[in-house]
Design brief:
about 240 residues, six-stranded mixed sheet, 8 helices, about 20% strand, globular, alpha/beta
Length: about 240
């Protein structure tokens, strides 16, 4: 039995058949693009914590550059430590992110938990080139997790350890920093959550996009059931 292509070619000629095939491909491409365009996105608050100098503000400025709010040649050397909080909204894949960066000095860290109750995930950013600061960062992070456990013992979140400044040769690997984190924090605190690790150079747009990919992938896995249930309403996953 002749295929559809052969029947069209025999009846109308090769040129008409080729035009028909091109039209079919165009229609399929348009339908695919429409489906991707209308795929629901989900609002997602991500808390970004870490000590001053870890690179949190640089990471958020890179997000502003990626979405076009700042020019591609925007400088990074004028960034000052965040004294309160800084918010950057950035859509990536199915997630409509709000990244909340909280200042990292010792007077602000005790307020981290106030911003975490309605978060869908928490990023701990660490300066991988400053091993001497790891312990201080882990203690502050441990206090945050302890506060979360006390306020809502059954609440779990995806946690992300981002080891920044991989452009510096002395930067530790994410594997080493994760091992140091897990050795420093009460395992019972971490057991309430899922921990993912990654490496980042916040000065590099490509590296920040890779971090967004990692965060998005882990959020997809963590909130899979919520995403399926709310796909028709595009509501945020429950926290």
């Amino acid at each position: 039995m002749a295929t559809l292509w052969e029947r069209i070619k025999n009846k109308f000629g090769l040129c008409y058949a080729a035009s028909y095939l091109v039209c079919c491909k165009c229609i399929c491409f348009k339908k695919t693009a429409e489906l991707e365009q209308h795929e629901p996105t989900f609002p997602c608050k991500i808390l970004v914590v870490g000590l001053n100098g870890a690179g949190k503000s640089t990471f958020l400025r890179q997000l502003d550059i990626l979405k076009g709010s700042l020019p591609a040649n925007a400088a990074f050397d004028d960034i000052q430590p965040t004294s309160g909080f800084n918010i950057v909204n950035h859509a990536h894949k199915r997630w409509d992110f709000s990244f909340w960066e909280i200042g990292g000095n010792d007077k602000i860290r005790k307020y981290w938990d106030r911003y975490a109750n309605d978060a869908h995930g928490i990023v701990l950013m660490v300066d991988g080139s400053s091993a001497d600061s790891f312990s201080e960062a882990f203690v502050a992070f441990s206090h945050l997790l302890q506060s979360l456990k006390q306020s809502n013992p059954s609440h779990s979140l995806p946690l992300f350890l981002l080891v920044n400044k991989t452009d510096i040769p002395s930067c530790a690997t994410s594997t080493d920093v994760a091992a140091a984190l897990q050795a420093s924090i009460d395992k019972r605190l971490l057991s309430y959550h899922t921990l993912s690790t990654g490496e980042c150079n916040a000065l590099s747009a490509e590296s920040v996009v890779s971090s967004l990919d990692m965060i998005s992938h882990q959020l997809d896995a963590f909130y899979r059931a919520d995403l399926v249930g709310s796909a028709t309403t595009a509501q945020a996953p429950d926290t």
